[in-house]
Amino acid sequence: MATTNIQSFAGDVEVAGELTVTGQLNSTTGSDKVKLTATTASETDYIPLSKGTTGAQPLYTDSNLTYNPANNVIGANLSGNVTGNVTGNVTGNVSGSADTVAFTDRDATNDTDYIAFVADHTAGDKALFTDSSLTYNSSTNVIGANLSGNVTGNVTGNVSGNAAFATNATYANSAGSATNATFATSATHANAANTVAFTDRDTNNETDYIAFVANHTPGDKALYTDSNLTYNPANNYLGANVPYANSAGSATNATYAGSAGSATNAGFATNATYANSAGSATNATYAGSTAYATSAGYVSGGICKYYIKYVTTQRYYPSSTNIHLYDMDFNYAAERSNSTLVIQYSFFYECHQDRAFVTYVNNSYYPYNMSNTKYGVAISTYDHDENDTPQTTTFIVHYAPGTTSNRTYKIYSRSIRNASQRFALNRAFNAGGQYSEYGISYALLQEFAA
User: Fold this and answer.
1) Quick check: 299 pLDDT over 80?
2) 156 φ, ψ to 5°?
3) What domains appear along the chain, each with residue ranges and CATH number?
4) What is the pLDDT of residue 147?
5) Which of 180, 210, 325, 433 sits most deeply, having the most CB atoms within 10 A of its CB?
6) SS3 for the chain, per residue?
7) Which of 83, 80, 76 is nearest to 100 (CA)?
8) Best CA proximity match to 67, nearest among 85, 51, 90, 43
9) Phi/psi of residue 233, each to 5°?
């Protein structure tokens, strides 16, 4: 390559091939091309600029206008409008209008972030502010703030803190005097608490307190509890002093009393209608012992349910060794699986002697195996004249269902000599005239809570 020392030329100079200049190139007047070299180095380079927009111009640089080829970042202070997309991070202050702002997904980040807000809602450029009390957690989806004024729309999830006097405090923990506090954890004086969430406590062995209101009139009411009104889910016991219950002292009529003391009339005592003690009851019907009755078997808790069936049909059943008295059939589902059923049968009937009444539940004998023809829960009364004037027999059986499922209860008249004989219910064998003697038979079932 030839080397030439050139002082100056008048007019245009054309150089064939590459022009290499050693030393300082003071002027590039008239040159419109510069050879560029690509680089990806992580370094600070300075972007050339000129004072004019056309023609040959001298080039300048500024220490504040830089570029790093490795990370593709321009360093500069920008003013005026920026069109197009701006990617990467912007440091420093940005003035003017920003049509869009880049957001980063933080859906599952368990931290406290601060919500940005502006000073007013008018149009135009505004500064963004944050406050330590206005927060958001991406992991729990919870906004932390104190709310005042009206909240419109649906609020889902849990609201912590108090929503006093809220118009609609759906799911609020405490909605004092709320107009509509649907599902509020605490809705004191709420005007419309449509539903209250309940938790199953069927088996907890503990003392819980029953809520009640001051009166039964419509409208908003406060809920109250009393230490004497309790319930234990484990044993299904209510604790309370109620009429007809724990102690009737010297009551004139202590039906259902827990203790009837010297009651004048303790009907069904031995539990004063199942009272624990009938004391010196004047009239202790069905008591284990009339004077000073103390126990009626092993039943405790009293009647929780009963059923009665009256049969007025006059029926003449065909002769058989084992006659199904189907008019007396009934179905019953116990209230509790551990209760005891006491069934009293009363028959107005005509039949031959030497016949027994046999009872079934779901086609199985009860209360014990009565497959032997000589067994029965009651025997028909000897009747010297089997053609007129029916007789009455009353007897009681008991049964422990062990389930709350429906059961079918039946009764049969069976010959203890395996003889085919007849049976007339609510009438005599003969009909008409002086034989028109009709009656009623019934079955009374009482279920006792264990």
Assistant:
1) no
2) -110, 165
3) 1-75 (no CATH), 241-297 (no CATH), 304-448 (2.60.120.1340)
4) 72
5) 325
6) CCCCCCCCCCCCCCCCCCCCCCCCCCCCCCCCCCCCCCCCCCCCEECCECCCCCCCCCCECCCCCEEECCCCEEECCCCCCCCCCCCCCCCCCCCCCCCCCCCCCCCCCCCCEECCECCCCCCCCCCCECCCCCEEECCCCEEECCCCCCCCCCCCCCEEEECCCCCECCCEEECCCCCECCCCCECCCCCECCCCCCCCCCCCCCCEECCECCCCCCCCCCCECCCCCEEECCCCEEECCCCCCCCCCCCCECCCCCECCCCCECCCCCCCCCCCECECCCECCCCCCCCCECCCCCCCCCEEEEEEEEECCCEEEEEECEEECHHHCEEEECCCCCCEEEEEEEEEEEECCCEEEEEEECCEEECCCCCCCCCCCEECCCCCCCCCCCEEEEEEEEECCCCCCEEEEEEEEEECCCCCEEEEECCCCCCCHHHCCCCCEEEEEEEECC
7) 83
8) 43
9) -65, -30
pLDDT band at 441 (very low <50, low <70, confident <90, very high): very high
Count of Cβ atoms closer than 10 Å to residue 273 Cβ: 22
C-alpha separations of 45 from 36, 69, 71, 306 in Å: 13, 8, 12, 100
The C-alpha atoms of residue 311 and residue 361 are separated, in whole angstroms, by 19
Residue that is written with structure tokens 């290499």 in the block:
20
Q: What is the average pLDDT across 264-271?
A: 43
Average pLDDT across the chain, whole number? 74
Tally the residues of the chain: 450
- Structure tokens belonging to residue 191: 């005007």
pLDDT of residue 155: 64
Residue 7 has pLDDT above 80, yes or no: no
143 pLDDT exceeds 50?
yes
- Give CB contacts under 8 A, 24+ apart, made by 273-277: 273/302, 273/303, 274/299, 274/301, 274/302, 274/303, 274/448, 275/248, 276/300
- Name the CA radius of gyration of the chain, rounded: 50
pTM, to two decimals: 0.37
Using one digit for the tens of pLDDT, what is the confidence trace for 83-101?
A: 766 666 666 666 555 556 6
What residue has token string 């570029």? 67
Q: Name the amino acid, one letter, at 404.
A: T
- pLDDT per residue over 57-93, tens digit each? 778 888 888 989 988 888 887 776 777 666 666 666 6
**Residue of 76, 130, 450 lying closest to 299 (CA atoms):** 450
